Amino acid sequence: xxxxxxxxxxxxxxxxxxxxxxxxxxxxxxxxxxxxxxxxxxxxxxxxxxxxxxxxxxxxxxxxxxxxxxxxxxxxxxxxxxxxxxxxxxxxxxxxxxxxxxxxxxxxxxxxxxxxxxxxxxxxxxxxxxxxxxxxxxxxxxxxxxxxxxxxxxxxxxxxxxxxxxxxxxxxxxxxxxxxxxxxxxxxxxxxxxxxxxxxxxxxxxxxxxxxxxxxxxxxxxxxxxxxxxxxxxxxxxxxxxxxxxxxxxxxxxxxxxxxxxxxxxxxxxxxxxxxxxxxxxxxxxxxxxxxxxxxxxxxxxxxxxxxxxxxxxxxxxxxxxxxxxxxxxxxxxxxxxxxxxxxxxxxxxxxxxxxxxxxxxxxxxxxxxxxxxxxxxxxxxxxxxxxxxxxxxxxxxxxxxxxxxxxxxxxxxxx
Amino acid sequence: xxxxxxxxxxxxxxxxxxxxxxxxxxxxxxxxxxxxxxxxxxxxxxxxxxxxxxxxxxxxxxxxxxxxxxxxxxxxxxxxxxxxxxxxxxxxxxxxxxxxxxxxxxxxxxxxxxxxxxxxxxxxxxxxx
Lengths: 416, 129
Fold this sequence. Notes:
The structure holds 2 protein chains of 2 kinds. Chain A is of the alpha/beta class. Chain A has 8 helices and 28 strands. Chain A has 3 domains: 1-124 and 258-328, FAD/NAD(P)-binding domain, CATH 3.50.50.60; 126-257, FAD/NAD(P)-binding domain (3-Layer(bba) Sandwich), CATH 3.50.50.60; 331-416. In chain A, strands 1, 2, 5, 6, 7, 8 and 20 form a 7-stranded mixed beta sheet that branches. In chain A, strands 10-18-11-12-13 form a 5-stranded parallel beta sheet. The radius of gyration of chain A is 22 Å and the shape is globular. By secondary structure, chain B is an alpha+beta fold. Helix content of chain B is 16%, strand content 31%. The longest helix of chain B is centred in the first third of the chain and has 12 residues, at 33-44. The A-B interface holds A 38, 45, 48-50, 60, 62, 64-65, 68, 150-154, 179, 197-199, 201-203, 206-207, 366, 385-386, 388, 391 and B 5, 7, 10-12, 31, 48-49, 51-53, 55-56, 63, 69, 71-73, 75, 77, 84, 87, 91, 105, 123-125.
């Protein structure tokens, strides 16, 4: 078995992995990126639509353009990459992190590192996850799988399409399928509001007069060998209105019903996973419960913009580099969710530094106020014209905000 | 009267546009000046960046096989917003175009598409390995 040694190993060569590796390299550490696919770039390579990079590059790029800008930076720095490489196991061995992986070119490899950055991204929730009743015919795909088939492999999965869930990938695919000559009959959303960005509702549905059924549930899928249609039931005041159910004939169903961070590897390594995010618990340095193992990007929590992913990944890379150089925070303050906040990221603050905090709202609200409370007293607040669960919020908490913090202080973030 | 949702920022203001007999437009429902600009452009000359894929061809003119690591589609984009009502026409033109590999980001696919001043270019560099 081939044995290799690096200061740091980055698992995953998407936007997060590349950004973290570039930071580690810039701080003088040897680093290796392990990537399962045959190219760097991750999911961006199949996201051929524009809208990426407004914050990072101040222009609207397509997914491949965004990814290849990072790939070019990594190549320029000669950052080592092992493609077609699947990581099987991560474990602590003799005080080092041992990463076991396999590739067609090298067979089994054992890579020893002092630090690891997890950047494996996320997976799509599928039909089994949301338990749609009905037969099990061909023609039911997750939206991201259909996106790969259409944009990279060059196959159209069907002609008459219904999309379940109004997540961004589903909305983007509604436009993509329409432009590919298919008829998209409807988008069905269980919640009373769309879960994708407003701009995608406008550009991907309204532009093509595709109906969006809010507060509707798909209660059956018909068809023996191939999907023949679905049954849709309205929800009123939380109850299914069986007598108002109707059928939509179609040959293809695309699911856009959420993403789950891909943490099998982390779980098997004994890393603690948070139920609110399905990602690892992390401290102020984005370090997991396994010392020296950091996490960033969609494996940590699902982001809505890749620009936020690379910002977070740079921090994870820089923090991993600081950790390798011996830096440890003198103390940390606990950060917790208050009213109307689903989660905060990370879960600890370093009172000596500026801390970038990401969070998600539980509610749709206009003219809201985000409050940072130290032991109940408001130390910082920000007015927000509009909040909704699908748009991530962020703020910075620095040493001056938490100057009054004592040993057992707690910071709470609430939306009022 | 025309109703629009502003997509300039995440607030998503619901705009109403009234055009009187003289062609003068009046925008209401916007919470900032960008909403009015968006409404005018969207009513008078709506544009969209178009992203699509073209068939990939190997240097010998064949399509990459199923066992190949090469993608069978090459992503392409308009360099700027393209007139919305002419998008179907543009897509028809792009359906007839193949891109030879290897190719580079920015390589020309369709210069000054359909007589506009907007180019369609390759959005992903693909090497032959």
